[in-house]
């Protein structure tokens, strides 16, 4: 077994590999760019080597620097993680020349299956059913349109060397095809150093299901069940689960055997994933093979009990697989949510900055529920514009699908992140969605269920009384602490005010404390309006960001943020301002005028910190609704900013190549 390995990656996957290596007694080496000098993976590793500037093209994608770092530290093997160099056959070849083992498949398998175009040709030759499309390289926008018309819209334009949703566009007509071709090429070049793209038929109402395979260097290959990854936004996975609610045992076996046959045909000898597009009728077509560890591998680990990183390391060291196909059993259900640094209220544009607070839920097993959080950040760390915006992968496992979803919702409630925008409110909304909970999925789920984008989640009528009770419980503790401060001119009477009015945003809700005492732990009997008396109990103390307590035996985790004369409460993706008032104050509050928001309709504001790639209009030009105004790039994604109405350009404040802060003015309209 290896004594020391280097991880040629960063962020959560680097930390993930380090954890397994540490458990196996293997020392680790981290590599880092200038932007990652203080990153968590650098701190966790036994050694760390600087490899260049912040841009990935000058650090994490430079093979010679990775090989040199391995030589310098005496690392016997290198794990590539995912992304970056993980599917570049030149990388394992360079390592082999240096006498260093690559913890992944052999280069020929990467060449055969890692390239999206070549993998489809290989699959066709092996009589594997594939999605109709053009497997050659597209040379121009006109060529793309010609091919799309032959195949029939809608089509998917995809980067040949792509992954992670980058370099992918769906086109429903000629105009979208031309634009998507250019954007896909640009993103592919920036993310993978390879601007080749291809086109294939986009299957309407499909499901994305993938089979995890595992092979060794002795000809053994097995499959470890499937993962459903149909909940996607802009072709990037958001929620994954294992197993799939669609498949029965016969379909699972058929897909698994086809995946194994394909892997054996290329002598696959590591962990890999064969992806399929599946119809609602359980029909399936080969989509592509990822010759690396997948982002969503934790759900497979939780339902199989296997550590895939450990298996990869053992296989790379020459060990045969210790398990056979008959040993693979799927136990329970696992769900994973990808937590991103992005603003769901601004069309999910990237958000960068410092994590002023980062408090994930507690990991571990409690009865039949397991919570796992794979992350590469710490409180005080910075989310950079140079890399993927993923903050963490939150995974829950339980006996049934609904129990795993409920555990996921509770864990999201307890996940505290401040300093940047994040997608936890959106994830909470997804997990509460009836269609998701029923398992009626497709890759168009988000587009269909959120056609106008994501709006702030409203507090439902059943939740309002509970949040009103939480607000009163918080206020009671705060007032008791204040009344008991030493040196107060007005001594504490010991009496507990009974009648309160809680203002949740604009709605006033009367709450009466019937009985109880204010102490830690607090326990009160309260009544909301004319409802029944319920008991609230909690150990919350002022200053804590998370109120954890029980209301009539039901456990709640509610995030608390202090504001002037109240608190902001966050629960199940909803955020409300709660102000606890006396009845007299509440009556006066109804007379207060509301402040109008500033009018920004005459400005195009930069929706996130980013780089201006291009300006598509000129001063004095008249623009129709939907036309492109500018393109801003952040975190390797190019974002097209379009006119929301017919307008005329008055002034242009920004220019290509300029870095802008969020809400910086790009242009002004007449």
Q: What CATH first level of the largest domain would be assigned?
A: Alpha Beta
Strand-pairing-aware structural class: alpha+beta
* Overall domain count: 6
Strand order of the largest sheet: 14-13-10-11-12-15-23-21-20
What is the global morphology? Answer: globular
Indicate the CATH topology of the largest domain. Answer: D-amino Acid Aminotransferase, Chain A, domain 1
CATH homologous superfamily name of the largest domain? ATP-grasp fold, B domain
Relative helix content: 25-40%
Tally of DSSP β-strands: 40
**Strand residue percentage:** 25-35%
Number of helices: 17
Mean pLDDT, to the nearest integer, reads 92
Please give the alpha-carbon distance between the first and last residues: 69 Å
State Rg. 27 Å
CATH architecture of the largest domain: 2-Layer Sandwich
The major pleated sheet works out as: 9 strands, antiparallel
Low-confidence stretches: none
Kindly describe this structure.
- The protein is α+β, with helices and mostly antiparallel strands.
- The protein folds into 6 domains: 4-103, Rossmann fold, CATH 3.40.50.20; 116-131 and 208-331, ATP-grasp fold, B domain (D-amino Acid Aminotransferase, Chain A, domain 1); 132-201, Dna Ligase, domain 1 (2-Layer Sandwich); 339-446, ATP-grasp fold, B domain (D-amino Acid Aminotransferase, Chain A, domain 1), CATH 3.30.470.20; 463-589, 2-Layer Sandwich (Glycoprotein, Type 4 Pilin); 603-669, OB fold (Dihydrolipoamide Acetyltransferase, E2P) (Beta Barrel), CATH 2.40.50.
- It has 17 helices and 40 strands.
- The strands form 9 sheets. The protein has a 9-stranded antiparallel β-sheet. An 8-stranded antiparallel barrel has the order 25-26-27-28-29-30-31-32.
- Helix 5 packs across helix 6 (116-125), helix 7 packs across helix 8 (174-192) and helix 12 (401-413) runs antiparallel to helix 13.
- The protein is globular, with a radius of gyration of 27 Å.
- The termini are far apart.
- The model has no long low-confidence stretch (mean pLDDT 92).
